[in-house]
Amino acid sequence: MGMNKNTIFAWASFALFIIGAAIILLGVLKYREYAIGFSVVGIGFFAISWAFNALKGRI
């Protein structure tokens, strides 16, 4: 049983959310002097994750 396009979008959205959270936490916990940049990139990953989640069922 293969994955359909909605399942692929769901997994991609979840993976992007996890990567975004990891980038934000990495910036806050390890690289404090670059925390703003890491946070901006992490929020960008959240936005892409939200867009992928919104595409589920529409394509």
Automatic annotation (TrEMBL):
<keyword id="KW-0472">Membrane</keyword>
<keyword id="KW-0812">Transmembrane</keyword>
<feature type="transmembrane region" description="Helical">
    <location>
        <begin position="34"/>
        <end position="55"/>
    </location>
</feature>
<feature type="transmembrane region" description="Helical">
    <location>
        <begin position="7"/>
        <end position="28"/>
    </location>
</feature>
<dbReference type="InterPro" id="IPR047674">
    <property type="entry name" value="CAL67264-like"/>
</dbReference>
<protein>
    <submittedName>
        <fullName>Uncharacterized protein</fullName>
    </submittedName>
</protein>
<keyword id="KW-1133">Transmembrane helix</keyword>
